[in-house]
């Protein structure tokens, strides 16, 4: 008995996973289809099995793939001389949810967009050789702004931190959640970061928690945070930061939740990494109980202790020592 050979061009195709539909954080939020949905694909109205290179060889045009059970479009992509190059779209319930362009060697290039199944644009950015560069905008499902960001250089590298800018908003309230200023205004016309970041005049900006409470108040000049106060949930100061000595030093003051200064640090921020100059501890009563001073002639961010003073809870000086690299010390006073 002879076995009947199946024609790969007929309506029976190999089951192909549709993992493409679940790539990306925004698409993960959508209901992901079965990993074993069956797709039927066609090219210029003719059935085609994209698993066989012989059926795509030399072809130029759009390939359309539909879910066999529902008949809804799931994927559409461009062939150029038999290779997947150019426009690519993905669909959910027959609605476009993602669109981008693929280069000959694989990376995405140019404008990329993502939508909800209701047609709301939720993300838009530009790819350069597979990396996000320039302006990236995100929206909530109701169309209100979620995040506006300028991406410069490698996203995981220092270039992003020093040359990028971003604002992020809370859902519902639309209040400012985070602000990161760049070296110059970068987000216009979508966000007036020239005003927010104090490029034209000093600016005072509040950012909020998801509960609507003021989380941080910052004073900015030319994109640089001059002074900032971070608050506990009940509105009490948690951390105060302030630039001193024309921006070459930074003081950090930490508070207890019940109130009262508990720690203080002074940094040299004139270079990188920042170097710790002094740190002090305070009793709940407010009296100084410990102080350490650090040298600057070190290579690490922690420094080496040059002189150490310790007070008891009453404010009486207990010890005042000069410290040396070999661990020995010399008393200034007792």
Which strand-content bin applies to the residues?
over 45%
- Assembly type of the chains comes to single chain
Secondary structure tally: strands? 23
Strand adjacency order, main sheet: 2-1-3-4-5-6-7-8-9-10-11-12
Helix % is under 10%
Describe this structure in words.
The strands form two sheets. A twelve-stranded antiparallel sheet has the order 2-1-3-4-5-6-7-8-9-10-11-12. Strands 13-14-15-16-17-18-19-20-21-22-23 form an eleven-stranded antiparallel sheet, with no helix packed on it. A hairpin with a 5-residue loop joins β7 and β8 (121-128). The chain has four helices and 23 strands. Residues 1-34 and 155-160 have low confidence and may be disordered. The protein is 5% helix and 48% strand. The protein has helices at residues 25-28, 53-56, 158-163, 193-196, and strands at residues 39-43, 46-48, 61-67, 73-80, 83-92, 95-102, 110-115, 121-128, 131-139, 145-151, 165-169, 176-180, 203-208, 214-221, 224-231, 237-244, 249-255, 261-268, 275-282, 288-294, 305-311, 317-323, 329-333. The N and C termini lie far apart (106 Å). It has 334 residues and is mainly beta.
What's a quick, concise take on this entry?
The protein has 334 residues and is mainly β. 5% of the residues lie in helices and 48% in strands. A 12-stranded antiparallel β-sheet has the order 2-1-3-4-5-6-7-8-9-10-11-12.
Task: Map the helices and strands.
Elements (H helix, E strand, L loop, with lengths): L24 H4 L10 E5 L2 E3 L4 H4 L4 E7 L5 E8 L2 E10 L2 E8 L7 E6 L5 E8 L2 E9 L5 E7 L6 H6 L1 E5 L6 E5 L12 H4 L6 E6 L5 E8 L2 E8 L5 E8 L4 E7 L5 E8 L6 E8 L5 E7 L10 E7 L5 E7 L5 E5 L1
Antiparallel strand pairs: 1-2, 1-3, 3-4, 4-5, 5-6, 6-7, 7-8, 8-9, 9-10, 10-11, 11-12, 13-14, 14-15, 15-16, 16-17, 17-18, 18-19, 19-20, 20-21, 21-22, 22-23
